[in-house]
Design brief:
Helix content: 55-70%
Largest sheet: 3 strands, antiparallel
Distance between the termini: 69 Å
Strand order of the largest sheet: 1-3-2
Number of strands: 3
Order of helices and strands: HEHHEEHHHHHHH
Shape: elongated
Strand content: under 5%
Number of helices: 10
Structural class: mainly alpha
Length: 263
Amino acid sequence: MARARKRAKKPAEGDPPRVRAREKPQQIADELRRRIVSGELSDGELLGHEPELVERFGVSRPSLREALRILEAKGLVSVVRGRGGGVVVHEPDERMAAHTAALVLRARNVSIADVHEARSLLEVAAVRIIASLRSRRSAASELQQRIDDQMKVIMDPDAFGPANARFHEHLVGLAGNRTLSIVAEMLNEIVVRAVTAVSKRGPSVSSTATRRRGIRSQQKLVSLVEAGKAAEAEAHWRTHMAIVGRVLLGQRAATVIDLMDYH
């Protein structure tokens, strides 16, 4: 007579639902992600080579590789093959956030113009705050340094884009809200690629002339901030950002965001 198969015991009414144990690769990925985000593991740190990690975590090679694939997909590690390679740690940054955001924005058919408008709203609000600070002269000096950095690379569109983004990021950062600063960094990472692409399109003379006009506008902003003219600084920067959207983004402002277009 065949042995009766045991039936799984149903949880009694009111019992807490059973929590299924997470798979080993996910457990390893979660642990490493926690250590990276907490700063326990530093950017650029070598975790080790595959055989060492298999032994350290006490798992099979396929389980370790799956864990690393999870972390690679999030941009938290990279696996360098060959002699002298290994698993390298990467701290989360605005580029990772921008890539994730770009996927969502693309899926929702959001244009670069829309992203630029969001950045403009942040910056215009930041300008009024900075121009009202008691430390506004120090803030103006810091912004001037970012302008000087741009002037050094004004003839090089590839270098100018990131230098220009640093000015915009620093502008929001001076307002003192860290969350807004992180959002601004993410938006800038998206927009700067469009700016660089558009800068390369026209003749170098007109592109350089456009960049010089932008820097003159930044200089005016610094003067208004230093003088504490908050309302004037706000109005000036609102106009500046509107012109940036029209001139630098150009036709790209009507296209759907895809960061791969700007690599």
